[in-house]
Amino acid sequence: MTSPARRELGEFLRSRRRQVDPATAGLPGGGARRTPGLRREEVALLSGVSHTWYTWLEQGRDIHPSRQVVDALARTLRLSAAEHEYVLRLTGHGAPAPSSAPDRLPAHLQRLLDALGPSPAYAITASWAIVGWNAAYERFYPGVAAAAPADRNLLWLVFTDPAVRALLGDWETDSRRFLTQFRAEAGARLADPEVVALVARLEVASGHFRAGWASRDVDRFSSGERRFEHPRVGTLLLEHHQLTPADAPGVQLVVYTAAPGSETGERLHRLAG
């Protein structure tokens, strides 16, 4: 693990420990607690490790927990599947973080986006830089083409562009979802210059981002229906999909398709003129 990953692991475990109700962990109630949640020694006891060793883990020391220990900590701390996966990645047991991608989208992937017709679609790198999109997405969100290359990052636009804020059906919830998914993907890469620079800029630019980032909440991406409010055609109900090409693992394709049974398909065609 890199030093930033060890520090992130320690801070993340500490934040989750404080959220566990001792009663749900099978510990007796009563007694004064200076801080909410479990004590370090309780986590250590329930997970089958020494108090000193677990303290070192939260302090970001250079120790390497086994997969079995990580699984035990996940059970003790009641981690969600996304949080468990995040800790596995931080400790080197999960899937490796996506590799970097070129600044330009490979031509065959651009042709794939273009072939999707009225369905808005774009491509992002591991640091969420937007490196390609189709005409439908530009009609859906014209700001993608107008943004300066340095600002053409999905997370940056979600938290700083008023047009994106108006487009998202529930900006408070949707922006939080984007943030938790980004952290889940980028946690093991917090030392990468692109990620460091992006987080630093966002912490200055957005108090909402700053509070969400400090929470250390993480979540997995899941396909589902999203609501958008488009200034030209009104409400759009779109199914949100995310794909990783086998020959370009550092790129993710994000595709929006009309939700079944809605008027969105007709409205997307109207948007296309």
SSE topology sketch:
Elements: H1 3-17, H2 40-47, H3 51-58, H4 67-76, H5 81-90, H6 107-114, E1 121-125, E2 130-133, H7 135-140, H8 143-146, H9 154-160, H10 162-167, H11 171-186, H12 193-205, H13 207-215, E3 224-230, E4 234-243, E5 251-258, H14 264-271
Antiparallel strand pairs: 1-2, 1-5, 3-4, 4-5
Could you estimate the helical fraction of the residues in percent?
A: 40-55%
Q: Got a strand count? A: 5
CATH topology of the largest domain: Beta-Lactamase
Helix-strand pattern: HHHHHHEEHHHHHHHEEEH
Instruction: Please count the helical segments.
Output: 14
Strand content: 5-15%
Q: State the end-to-end distance.
A: 52 Å
Number of domain units: 2
If you average the pLDDT, what whole number results? 92
The CATH architecture designation of the largest domain is 2-Layer Sandwich
Q: Could you tell me the radius of gyration in angstroms?
A: 21 Å
Which structural class best describes the helix and strand composition?
A: alpha+beta
Strand order of the largest sheet: 2-1-5-4-3
- The first-level CATH class of the largest domain is given as Alpha Beta
Shape: elongated
Q: What about the largest sheet?
A: 5 strands, antiparallel
Oligomer, anyone? single chain
Model regions low in confidence, pLDDT < 50 over at least 5 residues: none
